[in-house]
Each structure stands twice: as structure tokens, then as C-alpha cells.
Amino acid sequence: MFRRGSLALVAGTATTALTLAACSPGSSGEPDGGGSEDSATVTFRLWDDAAAAAYEESFEAFTEANPDITVDVETVPWANYWDRLPQDIGSGTMADIFWTNTSNFGIYADNGNLIDIGAEIGADQDELVQSAVDLYTRNGAEWGVPQLTDSIALYYNADLLAEAGVDPSSLQWDPSGTNDTFLGAALDLTVDASGVTAAEDDFDAENIEQYAFNAQNDLQAIYIDFLGSNGARYQDGDQYAFNTPEGAESFQYLVDLINTYHVSPSAAETNQNGDLARDLFVQGKMALFQSGQYSLPHMADAEFDWGIAPMLEGPDGRVGVVHSVAAVGNAETEHPEATLEVLRWLSTAEGQEPLGANGAAFPAAVDAQSSFVDYWTEQGVDTSEFIAAAEGETIAAPLGPRANAGANAIAPYFEEMFAGRLPVQEALQQAQDAANEAIAE
């Protein structure tokens, strides 16, 4: 359990900006001033400033061991990253190595734009989180070197739970109601302005001061985990497959938490502000907040005792999503051997250790994960539940060469469903049909 105090600098650490040099593959053919004819500059692109600073530290150690290879790091903001990526690949100006996520790598793998990591360096990699490796394995080939991973657990306000007599590690949701311990706890943890809980008859749902949980239209932290915990799927291969009886039960449960029981903020609010629930938790106005490691830095402002418990358990147990960011190699690099050497480095615990050392990200190299754990242990935070979630049963993150098109097609139907304006079964059918049509175009 953690009390506010020693986390004061964490939020700043995770958002530190750093201006970094960069150049395109086409500009790195000549040796740097004073370098030998055999020297090479490998370019590396990503979207996160805090991670970029960690990579600068990592690549200093790499260049000490490989003095003929320099790595230039370029940050492109997330808002522009995915627009520039296809343009730069098409024009031949893409970096030698670049970050990608599971929703975006498939089309480049299928188009022959990426280096086959498994064929080129498979045996030279350190042990990486297997669920992350699986995410970047497509058509029998391994296309990325996982760098960071996110798994899901349950942040809790210890004071509010103690007052209500709730043990966060024992909470189970069950659409049949047979083994459900979560709903009753959520009703007790939701309180109106008069101090009346949602479990009481005179509860005022129009004037809520404290919510129980962050049920909302959030794929990574909420609904894909509920699907997995109820034996449902999000996708079957590249096809969307959430419109099943188990899928409908999962979404109906979430929608009811919002619109029937009022234990979560309205979708009218969370559809517009995806961070609303996180902010309410930090302000002490939400008792339970299911999320990933990426929310840790935001806990710096919490002025109460908080802790991290296992994610909610469903009928099929605790089944969460593990998302991963990977480094992929540009198949058109002008420096193939140097690029492979850098990719080998990025697959080692030594190469990834700086990513976890400032607490900003959880390395995918198993032996580097202690750097992240040790950082947060020094802050008084036990992150073991995230490791347990990553090592446990998981449901795949969104995949496929047109996963973004599928997500865009789904969005309007899910917004209406979570708002209670479109029945769950109808919304799922329409969303699934639209998504599968979108990825087929």
C-alpha cells in the first residue's frame, strides 16, 4: 500500500521532454566527421519523450561496445506518428528502426516493409515476455522486438474500501449473479451528496459524490478484459468476433453498471473525456480504478492510501490484455548489418534496462523488469500484480493489417451502447459487421 509523498517527482519523470537529433536512412550513408569508412548511423524513431531519454542512455552503452555504429533517436509526437509512417515508408525516408503497436504493424509486415526478426536474430535475443512476442508473430514469422508491455490490475482507495468493508482481491463479477461479489460492493462504494449509498432506496443518482468503478468505453483497461474473463473473444484471427452470447453478457454487465446501477460515471462524460475516471480516482472520488502501469505516474497527486490488487475476476477467471510496443526493422535500410546489431541490442536486458530505471515503462525483456520493479519499490509501490497479470491467462490485443479501420468502424456503435441509447445486442451486431466490412476494403 502506498501513501502520497515520495511520488512527487514521478509525473514529471514520465513526461520529461528531450530534443533529440535524427536523420533519415538516406542521409546516413556518409560517415560522420572523423569516422571510418565502415562506420554507420542507424536511425531510431519513437513517439515518447521519456522513453527517448532512456534510449539515449541505452545507446551510449551500445556505442561503447560498437564504436563503428551510432544511433540517432527521433521523436515524432503520437498525434502525427501514424500519418507520417506510411508517407515515410512510401518515400524511402523512414527510420532504420521504429516503434509500432499491435494495431499498426500487420499491414507493413504483410507488405514486406519489415525485417523478419525471427529469421535474422531469433536465436540472439534474451528472454522476452512471451505474450508480447506472440503479438508480433504473424503468418509464422516474428516481426518485432517487444520493448514495453502493459498489463491490467486494480488500483484501490484503501480508506474507502476499509470503510465499506471491501476486500479488493476477492471481487468477482458474474453476469448470472451466482458468484457475483462485485456488484454489491460497487453499490456500497457509490455514494450521493447526502451520504446515501447506491444500495439504499433513497439514493440520488443525479447527485453522486463518489463512484465505485471505471466501467467505460475503454478497450485496454475495461471491455476486452471483461470479454476474456467471460470466455469471449474480441477477434478471431483478424476478424472481429465479440458478438456472441458471452460477449453480449460482458457488455451488458458493463452498460448496466453505468446506466442501471449508476456505480460508474455516465458515458456522456467518459466518452468525451477518457481520463475522467482516473482523475476522479486521484481526487478520492472513485474507489476502484482498473488500469495499467501507464497510470502509475498520475497517482502522484493522490492524497490517500492506495494500493494495487488483481484485476476483477470473471466466470473464466482473471483474463487480461497484455499490450506491447515493439521495435521493428525497416526492410529497406541502407545499413542492414548495423541495423540488425541495434535490434539485437534492443532485445537484451542490458539494452532495455534504462526503460524501466526511471519508472516510466515496463521492459519486455524479462531480466530487465527488475529495474521497473525496483524503481517503484523505492517509491513504496508494489507492482507485482502487473507482473502476475502478464504471466497469467491473457486475451490478445487488437491485431491485423487494418485494425485501425476496424476500431474506427466500431467506435460510434460502442459510444451509443455505453450511453444506453443503443441496445447491447443490436450495437454488437452492427459494430461487428461494420468492423469486418472495414478491414475487408
TrEMBL record:
This is Carbohydrate ABC transporter substrate-binding protein, CUT1 family. GO terms for biological process: maltodextrin transmembrane transport; maltose transport. GO terms for molecular function: maltose binding. Keywords: Signal, Transport. Belongs to the bacterial solute-binding protein 1 family. It comes from the Bacteria. Pfam families: SBP_bac_1. One of its GO terms (cellular component) is ATP-binding cassette (ABC) transporter complex, substrate-binding subunit-containing. Residues 1-21 form the signal peptide. It comes from Ruania alba. InterPro entries: SBP (IPR006059).
